[in-house]
Amino acid sequence: MSSATTTAEVTSVAPPRERAKVLLPAILFLLLALAPLAVSIGMPAGWLALLTRALIFAIAALSLDLILGVGGLVSFGHAAFLGIGAYVTGIMITEGRSEALVILPVILGVCALFGAITGAICLRTRGVAFIMITLAFGQMVYFLAQALSAYGGDDGLTLYEKSTLLGFNPFASRTSFYYSVLIALAGAYLLVRGLVASRFGRVLRAARENPIRVSVTGFDVNKVRLVAYVISGMLAGLSGFFLANHTEFVSPAFMSWQRSGELIFMAVLGGVGSLHGAIIGAIAYLIAEDALSHLTEHWRAIFGPMIILFVLFTRGGIVGMLRKLGGRHG
After folding, report:
1. What is the mean pLDDT of residues 201-220?
2. Taking the alpha carbons of 245, 248, 250, 254 in that order, is the dihedral positive or negative?
3. 322: Cβ–Cβ under 8 A, 6 or more apart, which residues?
4. In 3-state terms, what secondary structure has residue 168?
5. 15-29, 101-115, 146-160, 283-297: lowest mean pLDDT where?
6. Chain centroid to CA 312
7. How far apart are CA 145 and CA 99, in angstroms?
8. Which residue ranges traverse the bilayer (predicted)?
9. Beta bridge partner(s), residue 168
């Protein structure tokens, strides 16, 4: 009797949980797709630019969540990939190469190479040592960007045109630019979600819990982590491409350690390891930042404690809070 009851309970509880994993991201992307319509019926036009920026950073936060939430690797140099993507875009546009189908392969190739070299070194360490060495590599790229005097150096590089796609300019209007970023974000989300659901993702998650046991079963833990690290860096480079086109300006500040910290905050705020939580966290982070910055010039003194208190008292971030609310309502 007890075993039958337990089976019935599991059967009745599991499907709603599985549906929630699909329903929440579907609702999220539907709402994001409808955002330009809200602007057309009276929402301030500046909100679309803000939301575009949030989606750009959502790609970077999602890429970080692959190694942070799934792989358990805390990288404090992840913004280096974002900066590499932005600088490759800026330099190529300055040199007269504005075609996105030319720029993007170069960005992905450079980020993959940088990720493979630095990842092979960083993954020899664990814990605090891994955090510090990723921070060191990130700062190396930061100071390298400052030394590029031909491309603005510490003052940054202003772009006088945006990337094109097959002769067209999809970034000319705010709406077309927004949907371009949204499509890229959806593609990145599906890619990462597919990786996490595959055997590769299961091994990566298991290595986070017990790497020794995974190694005993015959899997090369460092190889799996390195592949995840490289893929994560390539996706962050993609966000750098959009950021450069959005701001029409490239600066070493894009790859500072503070930016890496912000990406970690976004992932944790939304719900680390949930993937769509990184997207929600990036949007919530930038909207809250924008709102507070309009209230006072000392907004960081308010914003920091707010995030810390929220993370401390809402286990699982925003996604965890939504799950609790959903559980209370059956």
Report:
1. 88
2. negative
3. 24
4. strand
5. 15-29
6. 22
7. 23
8. 22-41, 47-68, 75-94, 100-123, 130-151, 171-192, 226-244, 264-287, 299-322
9. 165
Using one digit for the tens of pLDDT, what is the confidence trace for 129-174? 999 999 999 999 999 999 988 888 888 888 888 888 887 788 888 8
Residue ranges with strand state E in 79-201: 157-158
HSE, CB side, 13 Å, CA atoms: give it for residue 230. Answer: 16
Q: What amino acid occupies position 91?
A: I
- Report yes or no: 67 and 228 within 8 Å, Cβ to Cβ: yes
Q: Give the DSSP H/E element, type plus range, for residue 249.
A: strand 249-250
Tell me phi and psi for residue 157, to 5 degrees: -125, 120
Helix 79-94, helix 257-270: angle, nearest 10 = 120
Which residues, at least 6 apart from 240, have a Cβ–Cβ distance to it below 8 Å? 60, 81, 82, 83, 84, 85, 86, 87, 88, 89, 107, 254
More confident residue, 317 or 326: 317
Residue 327 has a pLDDT of: 60
| Structure tokens belonging to residue 34 | 């409808």
The radius of gyration computed from the CA coordinates of the chain, to the nearest angstrom, equals: 21
The amino acid at 19? R
Residue type, 72: G
User: Which amino acid does the sequence have at 18?
Assistant: E
